[in-house]
Amino acid sequence: MIRFARSLILVSAFSFVFAHAGAQTPQRDNRPRTASISGRVTIAGKPAANAKITITELNSEENNPLARIAGGSAREVYNAITDADGRYRVFNLPEGKYEIQALMGSCVREKRSQIEALVESLSLDEGEARADVDFALVRGGVITGRVTDADGRPLIARTISLQIVDEQGQKQEYRNFSNWESFQTDDRGVYRIYALRAGRYLVSAGGDSDGLMVGAAGKYPRTWYPGATIENQAKFVAVTEGGEATGVDIRFGGAKQTYEALGRVVDDETGQPVAGAGVICMKTAGSDGGFGSFGGNSRTDERGNFRFNGLAPGQYQVSLADYESFLTGKASGYFSNGAKFEIQGGDVADVEIRAKRGATIIGAAIVEDADPSAKSNLSQMMIVANSMPASPDGEDRNAITMGMAPTMSRIGGDGGFTIRGVRPGRVMFEAASITDRSLKVVRIERDGADASGGIVVNGVETVSGIRIVLGKSAGVIRGQVQVAGGALPADWRMNVFASREGGAGHSGGYAEVDGRGRFVIEGLLPGEYTLTLTARSQSNPNLPPPAPVTQKVFVTKGQEAQVTMMLDLSKKDQEEEQ
């Protein structure tokens, strides 16, 4: 729960920062373009002519959710059209990782999970000719219907949620971002979701499914077809290959009443109002089962007052979140343990956040062994301080539940930074960049001594002499996975995670293992890493996975680390050293 809440708060912060500061588009490079990808597309075993193939090259930050928010996660996109025999081929590709997608109407993969739809992932070596990237498709099904309110009026831009139900009654949320627009109702309240695998579905709308930003819960309670507000009273919708399930209409009852919460932020010592403080609101529980929905952000007025509107019944938490300090360079210098409140059937007033004076951390960031362009990008970076209390008792327990909103500071032109309002505890640092995401924290120093394990902050104090050393994360781990003790089922996927030993900040990465057992993890700092290999079913996440494999590997600057990992399906404990 702690990690989940922290992730939501960080996503909110970076969304704001990058929306205002902009993102850079990756430029073409001079890498050798000697690889190729080819294959064949069929529909029900017959050639699929004129199918569009899209090949997207992914950079080392593609799997980083913050990088996705910042934009520019893909380098280049290549397109091809299949010939009369359903074949395609794309030349002049550089070495790297790719996603290949077949765009063919409402078709789906014949023997793949409904989640992955028409996407294939792989990695290419220099000069490699990959000639077996085939797509065996079948006609997908369709669910269509209309969403209306209690008076029969159409509801526009409402999000439809699908759950696919297997023969054992296990439910799985259906997601397909390639046709996400079909999950929205149009101006008539009509939706038409296509490219569905044959099977049984539960269809619903309202509640938290209406989106992260709709008053933390949406105006209407979640309602399942044909009009049930309790899931076990919902009716299954059967979808056949190439078939269309029509009339799957959802009619809401009365609109859910929404309310507002009023509160203020006061100085914990003086009781005086704190003006201009940023406040964030998150839902923690409610009658519709929602958790973690973003209730909005606000800023206190000159009397320290804040207001949140459009809140549905449920439990909420509010806390200080001073993210605008990255842009303005001004921070309030406060932190808080937040406050909880519950909306039961009316507005809530007098929510009070006690703001406490935090520590100030003064330091400088430098780039180690980097080109001048990397050093010039320092002014587009920020240093983020995450503080964990020494003992999660009393008020600190509530602070942890709130996700421990981080404090941050933009790096000045001379490399200096000042972070205000830091909570007492052990502080870890991260670096985030808008223009050069290859720069990562190599180590932390305090008065010349290594402090990569974090620094301890006690109360209201000024901590100086901090030096954050950044380095170019250009290291690469290239690996091969061999499977023993049986065959991995076709719909299972393997991933490898790399974690840097003793590294400051969050150093590491991960990659999906391709169909030939290969993987490449890029953007790594020099050092020792622990690799963790996992495997899981894409179509049935309830199947028990094999035990993960762990292995050590060293990444040296300017060199590529080669590694072979063995997944033995007959073993439970799979640890080895390299």
Structure notes:
With 578 residues, the protein is mostly beta strands. It is built from 5 helices and 44 strands. A hairpin with a 2-residue loop joins β1 and β2. The radius of gyration is 26 Å and the shape is flat. The two termini are 34 Å apart. The strands form 10 sheets. Strands 1, 2, 5, 7, 9 and 10 form a 6-stranded mixed β-sheet that branches. Helix content is 7%, strand content 48%. It folds into 5 domains: 2-10 and 358-472, Immunoglobulin-like (Sandwich), CATH 2.60.40.1120; 31-139, Immunoglobulin-like; 141-251, Carboxypeptidase-like, regulatory domain (Immunoglobulin-like); 259-356, Sandwich (Immunoglobulin-like); 475-575, Immunoglobulins (Immunoglobulin-like, Sandwich), CATH 2.60.40.
Features:
5 domains, mainly beta, 578 residues, Immunoglobulin-like, disordered N terminus, 6-stranded mixed beta sheet, 44 strands, 5 helices, 5-stranded antiparallel beta sheet, disordered C terminus
SS field, number of helical segments:
5
Approximate shape:
flat
Strand content: over 45%
Number of DSSP strand runs:
44
CATH topology of the largest domain: Immunoglobulin-like
Estimate nothing, just give the exact number of structural domains: 5
The residue-averaged pLDDT reads 80
Helical coverage, percent range: under 10%
Straight-line N-to-C gap? 34 Å
CATH class of the largest domain: Mainly Beta
